[in-house]
């Protein structure tokens, strides 16, 4: 990627599938802390997972970290519903009242319409029905009175989309390709996003976050017992043993897939990652993803190399973001 210059003043939308893996929760507190410290404005929290515990957990994390009034949306559909072990533990009090949670596409259209042009960065670390639904939405969707279709809203309002999806480890060789969870759970939606999203898309594929580990021993020493992230992390490991009445798995150092996409969105000038050449991304009928170098393309992927290492990213995340709330 040639040196891109994005406006420093930006708002943030975070769309995740809270409840599948604990990495969504880490990325959520990164977004909340950036908001409270005045580095961005978190203008929408979205769940692509139609389980109501998911959006309730998003809200609980936001509130614990000081974000009290972030609008919320959810995909009301039948994408693969996440296993819900840790999300209820983080949510604590129960589901949110229906009036607090908008339809995901309605919410996206509303907040994008209200935003200034070229001012929004979107981070997506789950399934893609909310984003695909936005792109397919027409003028005055659901009677919202907005005079733009979703494609035009995305083109006008967003700087870029930072997305955790895909697996490029064997890109170009279908015989050895592997699917990635966020893609294979809703292949048509991810096809829409990778093919049609009108601004830059920076992909953190499975191979990036897979090499960045959370240090559990350091984490548990820093976070208070009341912290919903800590509660969720413990339950992510202990939940299956409770469900199946087996010996608990030891609490380990979990991979950081979603945090890498959030880190790039918050600090694109931080030189934390190598960036690929420009190109395109295709998704086949099996959900396999392929990157194709292409002049003028708007798709890029994150890389590690000698100057950009997973160890350095892991240390930065651990020291800068994995902490108790800080008052801005």
Structure write-up:
This protein has helices at 23-36, 52-64, 86-91, 104-114, 129-136, 150-157, 181-184, 187-196, 206-209, 216-222, 228-244, 257-266, 310-320; strands at 11-16, 41-47, 72-74, 101-103, 120-124, 158-164, 200-204, 274-275, 279-283, 289-293, 299-303. It has a nine-stranded mixed sheet, sandwiched between helices. It is of the alpha/beta class. 38% of the residues lie in helices and 16% in strands. 50% of the residues are buried. α1 crosses α2 (52-64), α4 crosses α5 and α5 crosses α8. It has a single domain (11-320), classed as Inosine-uridine Nucleoside N-ribohydrolase, Chain A, CATH 3.90.245.
CATH superfamily: Ribonucleoside hydrolase-like
Helix content: 25-40%
What is the strand tally? 11
DSSP helical segment count: 13
What are the secondary-structure elements, in order, as H or E? EHEHEHEHEHHEHHEHHHHEEEEH
Q: Describe the main β-sheet briefly.
A: 9 strands, mixed
**Terminal residue distance:** 33 Å
Q: SS-based structural class? A: alpha/beta
Strand order of the largest sheet: 4-3-2-1-5-6-7-11-8
User: Outline, from the CA principal axes?
Assistant: globular
Please tell me the overall pLDDT.
93
CATH topology-level name: Inosine-uridine Nucleoside N-ribohydrolase, Chain A
* Total domains: 1
Rg, nearest Å: 19 Å
């Amino acid at each position: 990627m040639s040196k891109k210059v994005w406006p420093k003043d930006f708002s943030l939308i975070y769309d995740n599938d809270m409840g599948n893996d604990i990495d969504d929760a880490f990325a959520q507190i990164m977004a909340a802390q950036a908001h409270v410290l005045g580095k961005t404005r978190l203008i929408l929290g979205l769940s692509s997972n139609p389980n109501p515990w998911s959006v309730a957990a998003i809200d609980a994390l936001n509130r614990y970290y000081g974000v009290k009034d972030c609008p919320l949306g959810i995909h009301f559909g039948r994408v693969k519903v996440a296993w819900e072990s840790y999300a209820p533990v983080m949510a604590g009090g129960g589901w949110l009242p229906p009036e607090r949670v908008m339809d995901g596409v309605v919410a996206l259209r509303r907040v994008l319409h209200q935003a200034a042009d070229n001012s929004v960065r979107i981070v997506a670390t789950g399934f893609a029905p909310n984003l695909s639904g936005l792109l397919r939405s027409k003028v005055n969707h659901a009677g919202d009175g907005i005079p733009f279709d979703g494609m035009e809203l995305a083109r006008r309002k967003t700087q870029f989309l930072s997305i955790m999806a895909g697996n490029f480890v064997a890109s170009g060789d279908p015989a050895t390709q592997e699917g990635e969870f966020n893609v294979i759970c809703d292949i048509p939606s991810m096809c829409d996003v990778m093919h049609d999203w009108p601004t830059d898309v920076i992909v953190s594929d499975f191979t990036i976050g897979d090499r960045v580990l959370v240090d559990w021993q350091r984490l548990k020493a820093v976070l208070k017992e009341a912290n919903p992230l800590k509660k969720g992390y413990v339950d992510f490991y202990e939940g299956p043993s409770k469900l199946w009445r087996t010996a608990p798995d030891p609490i380990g150092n979990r991979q950081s897939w979603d945090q890498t996409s959030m880190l790039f969105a918050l600090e694109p000038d931080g030189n934390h990652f190598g960036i690929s050449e420009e190109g395109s991304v295709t998704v086949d009928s099996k959900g396999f993803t392929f990157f194709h170098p292409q002049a003028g393309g708007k798709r890029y992927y994150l890389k590690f190399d000698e100057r950009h290492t997973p160890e350095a990213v892991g240390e930065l995340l651990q020291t800068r973001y994995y902490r108790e709330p800080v008052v801005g």
